[in-house]
Amino acid sequence: MPTSRKYRQALASVFSVPFAAAHVLLNSHHPQNQNTGMHPQFLAASGTLSIQAQACEEK
Amino acid sequence: MHPLWNFLKTMVATAVLLFAASLISYAQQTLTVSLSGNSVNFNLTAGSANNPGNTSITATTVCSCFFQPVNVYAYFNNAASALTNAGFNIPSSAFQISNNGGAFQALTNTGVFGGAGAGIQLSNFFTIIGPFGRTHNDTMQFNINLTGGTLPNLPPGTYAGTLNIQAQAP
């Protein structure tokens, strides 16, 4: 195998480790993953807004 | 020493540092949504397309996360009965939001949250490095359009409902 190709392979394998590991951690172990049963998600947060509309009788 | 060995050592050290940074970032990940107010009121005119809400609301989303896209949604739980009054309903399709000065959009899309056909995606943004957080504002204006179907004949009364604002880092 040419030396340059070895370098490229080494670089690719080294850099693939941390990002892949972080991605697995995020997808499988985050405690907020479980907040919606049907759609496994993580890092979800919400707020609510009360809406009130008054319809009056036409004169 | 062989140059390849030095190169590999540098790469491994870099990988360890990046991995440690990602773990630290993972441990601190948070996503919050806060609203500038918690209620919006409307005075409805029968058959009118323009029934604006009395105030705008800003949803502030802060993501302290690592290389994450973040989506922000607004939705009702039920499209047919977004606002209700004694058996009479205003559907989500009559409820409109203008986000950050954009055109008014009716809440008619099916998203990952809420009822079918009862929401819209307000925005999305990307966070690169978490510990410093990334703040995103969505300023919403509201309108109720009472021109469609039987809505012009809506009986008088108080129609109430709850609009949900939710952010997700998928």
Write a brief structural summary.
With about 60 residues, chain A is α+β, with helices and mostly antiparallel strands.
At the first level of CATH, the class of chain B is Mainly Beta
Give the overall shape of chain A, derived from the CA principal axes: rod-shaped
Q: Quick check: average pLDDT of chain A?
A: 54
Q: Which term fits the overall shape of chain B?
A: elongated
Biggest interface: chains and residue counts? Answer: A-B, 36 and 66 residues
The protein's oligomeric status is heterodimer
Q: Structural class of the helix and strand makeup of chain A?
A: alpha+beta
Instruction: Enumerate how many helices of chain A there are, as a single number.
Output: 1
Distance between the termini of chain A: 89 Å
Strand order of the largest sheet of chain B: 1-3-10-7-8
Task: Name a few traits of the molecule.
heterodimer, A: alpha+beta, 20% strand, rod-shaped, B: 170 residues, mainly beta, Immunoglobulin-like, three-stranded antiparallel sheet, 1 helix, 43% strand
Topology of this protein?
The complex is a heterodimer of chains A (59) and B (170).
Chain A lengths: L2 H27 L14 E12 L4
Chain B lengths: L2 H25 L2 E6 L3 E6 L12 E8 L3 E8 L7 E3 L2 E3 L4 E5 L5 E2 L12 E9 L6 E11 L12 E12 L2
Could you characterize the architecture of this molecule?
Chain A is an alpha+beta fold. Chain A has one helix and one strand; from the N terminus they run αβ. Chain A has a domain at 3-35. In chain A, 15% of the residues are buried. Chain B has 170 residues and is mainly beta. Chain B is built from one helix and eleven strands. The radius of gyration of chain B is 23 Å and the shape is elongated. Classes of the chains: A alpha+beta (59), B mainly beta (170). At the A-B interface, helix 1 and strand 1 of A face helix 1, strand 1, strand 2, strand 3 and strand 11 of B.
